[in-house]
Each structure stands twice: as structure tokens, then as C-alpha cells.
Amino acid sequence: MTGLNLRLPSPLIEVHDGRLDAKGVRLYLKRDDLIHAEFPGNKWRKLKYNLEAAIADGHSKLLTFGGAYSNHVRAVAAAGKHFGFSTVGVIRGEEHKPLNPSLEYAADCGMTLTYMNRETYRLKDAPEVIGSLSAEFGRFYLIPEGGSNTLALPGCAELVEEITVDFDVICCACGTGGTLAGISTALRRDQQAKGFAVLKGAGFLASNIRELQGQAFGYSNDNWSIELGYHFGGYAKADHALRSFIADFESRSGFELDWIYEAKMMYGLMDLIDRGHFKAGTSIVAVIS
After folding, report:
1. What is the pLDDT of residues 110-124, one digit of tens each?
2. What is the phi/psi pair of residue 253, to 5°?
3. What is the 3-state secondary structure (H, E, C) of the chain?
4. How confident is the model over 236-265, as a mean pLDDT?
5. By the 8 A CB rule, do 185 and 161 touch?
6. Per residue in 31-49, pLDDT tens?
7. Could you tell me which of 74, 101, 108, 100 has the C-alpha nearest to residue 89?
8. Please, which residues have CB within 8 angstroms of residue 167's CB and are 6 or more apart in sequence?
9. What is the average pLDDT across 228-242?
10. Which residues contact 150 (CB under 8 A, 6 or more apart)?
């Protein structure tokens, strides 16, 4: 894919914090959020090979799913603008006016927004639902919610090749599990991947990851795990503890964490470090996407 000024490899910076020193742990941030303003982090990595496949198959339209604040929907809309696709965003729930900034941006990129009630949305992958969308919008290349499919995983796996320091553990926030599924396949035998679920009741992620890996690579590995206890009430929910952590982390590092995804990961990671989950001498990379 050409025509974009992508910052690849994305920067890797070390976090200097007395709490890490006390535990003998080194922590690096893989700043995938700096890859591109319209395609930050795993959004570009997941879309890259999907866009190539859409072009190769002669598609002129992309269709995807997401919530009202979905960064994935924004990224697909931006892909349409940059690469000449028309785009359709199927949004969970009812339409609300005025549009929030995420959907307003998508619409400004030319995306057609359509809304699906929550009951039907839960069945969005069913053939009859896809068939109904095809009847309404014509032929399209389908990108699933969050962008996690077999073509997303190789793009996410490429992240590991860019890391220039030796590390033991790599962490990422998990919404659909695609990033963790891809990253873990690129690790050495002595390295581990750890995901932090941002959804409440996200036990399903483990089977999602195994299924994605099986479809993409023909096998599923066991060098990953998912922390389910740092969702702070569910997707796009936060409490005083999380907000205080974000403010404290920014005062220490000068970096403001995204509260929907990365803050939950970093809160969980710092909590595990504080509780001695990682032995002294461990080097950790946290993906900021």
C-alpha cells in the first residue's frame, strides 16, 4: 500500500519510574499510536493486508461493524478516503444526532452510516444478516468488527520484528483478541504475550484467539494469557481509580493514556508488577495502539 506517510517502525521508548526500579523490571512502550494520525496502532496493522486483498479481488466498497465510538470504524472510513473505496459503517444501536466526533469524522470521510438494533447486531455474522446487507448495499468487502480476521494477524505479528530490545513479555489491550493472536505467533519460545481485556465478561476471547490463529496459521500456540479483571465495569467505562491512575501516569511520564484501552492495560500491568507477578530482571514491552 502506498500514498501514506507511515511512521514505521513505530518508536520504542523506555519508561523510567521508581516503582519499576524497586521491582527490578524494565518497561518499554511500543508507540504504535504514532504510526499515522488516521490509522493509529493496530488499526493500520490489521487493515494493511485486508486492503490489499480487497484491491486484488476488485472490490470498490468496504463494509464493517462497530460501536458509536469505534476507532476501527474511523480507520475504515479513512481507508476509503485514501484508497478510493466507498465505505459503509454498520453501527450498533440507535442513531443519535448530532453525531459524536468519531462518527462525524467517518461521515466526513464519505462513509455511509447505517444503524442496527442490538438484538440483530449480536447476530451480525449470520449469513442472513450479511445477505440483507448485501441486498441493501450491493457487493462489498467485509471487514469484521475491530478488524480481527485471518488477514489482520500477519500485520500484527510484524510488530514484533520491529522491537530492537530483548524482552520477556509483551502486553496489549484486548477488544476482539486479534492483536494478541497475531503478536503471540511471532514470539520466541522463551517469550510470553499477555492481553488485558477491556470488556466485561470477556472469557470468550480465549476461544476467539485460538480460532483466529488456527484459521490464519493452521495452529494455535499457548504462549499467551488474558487478564480479565481490569475492565473497570466494561467497555468505555471508567471509575475514579482509573482516572486517578491516568493522571498519575501522565505526571510521571508526560504521556496521557487512552482511557478506553491502554489505561486499563497499563493499570493492570503496573498492578501485576507491584504485586510481584514478574521476577526481577524481566523486560516488558507494552503496545500503545
Report:
1. 999 999 999 999 999
2. -115, -15
3. CCCCCCCCCCCEEEECCHHHHHHCCEEEEEEHHHCCCCCCCHHHHHHHHHHHHHHHCCCCEEEEEECCCCHHHHHHHHHHHHHCCEEEEEEECCCCCCCCHHHHHHHHCCCEEEEECHHHHCCCCCHHHHHHHHHHHCCCEEECHHHCCCCHHHHHHHHHHCCCCCCCEEEEEECCCHHHHHHHCCCCCCCEEEEEECCCCHHHHHHHHHHHHHHHHCCCCCCEEEECCCCCCCCCCCCHHHHHHHHHHHHHHCCCCCCCCHHHHHHHHHHHHHCCCCCCCCEEEEEEC
4. 95
5. no
6. 999 999 999 878 999 999 9
7. 74
8. 28, 191, 283, 284, 285
9. 95
10. 212, 215, 216
Give the residue-averaged pLDDT of 233-237: 91
User: For residues 137 and 63, what is the distance between their CA atoms, to the nearest angstrom?
Assistant: 9
Structural domains for the chain: 12-38+149-288 (3.40.50.1100), 60-139 (3.40.50.1100)
Taking residue 115's Cβ as centre, other Cβ atoms within 10 Å add up to: 14
**pLDDT of 1 above 70:** no
Residue 40 burial (CB < 10 Å; 0-12/13-18/19+)? Answer: buried
Would you say 30 and 57 are in contact if contact means Cβ atoms under 8 Å apart? Answer: no
How far is CA 133 from its chain centroid? Answer: 25
The grid coordinates of residue 109 equal 470521510
Model-level pTM?
Answer: 0.93
Q: Tell me how far apart the alpha carbons of residues 63 and 143 are, in angstroms, rounded to a whole number.
A: 6
Alpha-carbon 146 to chain mean position: 7
Question: Is the pLDDT score of 2 beyond 80?
Answer: no
pLDDT tens-digit map of 106-159: 999 999 999 999 999 999 999 999 999 999 999 999 999 999 999 999 999 999
